[in-house]
Amino acid sequence: MEMKWLTSLLMPLAACVAAAETPAYEWRGLHVDVSRHFFDIPVLEQVMDRMAALQLNRLHLHLTDGPGWRLEIRKYPKLTGIGAWRKALPGQAWDWRKHEIGSHFANCYGGFYTQEEMKALIAYGAARGITIVPEIDIPGHVYAALVAYPEFALEPPPGCKLGRDVLAVEKPEVVQFVKDVLDELVELFPTGTPIHLGGDEVDSRLLSIEQQRRFMQQMVNYVKAKGNPAITWDEAALNGVRGQWIMLWRAEKQAEVMALGQPVILCPNSHFYFDYPQNKAEAAPGEHVITPETVRSFRVPSSSQVLGLQGNVWTEHISTPERLFYMAFPRAEALAEICRKKQ
Ligand code: ACM
Questions:
Q1: pLDDT in tens, 49-63
Q2: pTM of the model
C-alpha cells in the first residue's frame, strides 16, 4: 500500500523530468568556422561527442571563406589544391587581405576534408543523432576560391579597396561553377540535408542588392529542386530571397526577419556568438561579452517559425582545438539548456 502511494507520487515527477529533458526545438545547432582556421576530423569528432552529450543535433560547418576552401570538389581540384592553403602568418592579427593563398610556400598552413573523409564524418554524426550541415558561402567570402580560379572573380572598380572576394555572378560560367559545386555537395550528403548558401556581407558597391537577390534566389531554387532545404544568412532574406530557411545573425534584424513569415534559426550575435569573450577579464575595452548567463537570458519568440537555436564559433582568433573547446562549450551547455525548455 505504502509503495503504491510512493509510486503514484513519483510517477508525475518522473514525467515532469522527462518532459523537461525533451528538446523543445528541432534545430539545436553549433556552428564551427573551419575556414579561418582548419580543424581536422578527430577534432570535429570530439566536438560531436560533446554535442551529443548535450543533445545538440546540428553541426553547421562553415566550409568556405576568404582564407581557405575546405571541402574536396572533384570537378574543381584547385579549390583545395590551391585554395585550402596559405602562407603561415603566426601571431599576426587576422585579415584575409593579408593572406597569400597557395600551396607553394615553404611554410604553409591549411588543410581540407576529402569527400571520403566527409562521408565518414557524416556517418559518425548520424550515429550520435547529429546532422552535419554544410555551408558554401556565396557570392562573397570567396577569396580563396578566386585565387584558385581567378576567371570567376568580380573585378572591383579601379581604386576600390574592397578586394577580390566576390563571384562575378552575371557570368554564365560562374553560375555553372556554383551549380557544379552544389551538385557534388547534394550527392555527398544524405538525402534531404539542408544546404547553407551563405549570402552574408556583400557590399552593394560590388554587387547591387538586386544582383545579389537574383543570384541567391536562383541558387536557393536549384538546391530545393534537388529535394534539399536551402538556408541563407539573414541578408539574403532581407534582400528579397524567398523559400529558404533563414539564419538570423544580426540581432537588430530579428523583428524584420520574423515578419517575413519564413522558418528561422536564431543565432543572434548579441547572445549566441561564442567567439566573443565569455567574461569581462578577457574582453578588450568596450567589447561585447557573452557569458553563459547572457546565453540563458535570450528570450525565444514564441512562434512556429522558429526551427531552433544555434551557437556560432567563428575562428579568426581561434587557432587551436583547446581554444575552440574553451570558447564553445561552457556556452554550448547554456544553449542546450534553453533548447530543452520551450519558453
Ligand atoms: C556572419 O557573422 N557574417 C554570418
A1: 999 999 999 999 999
A2: 0.92
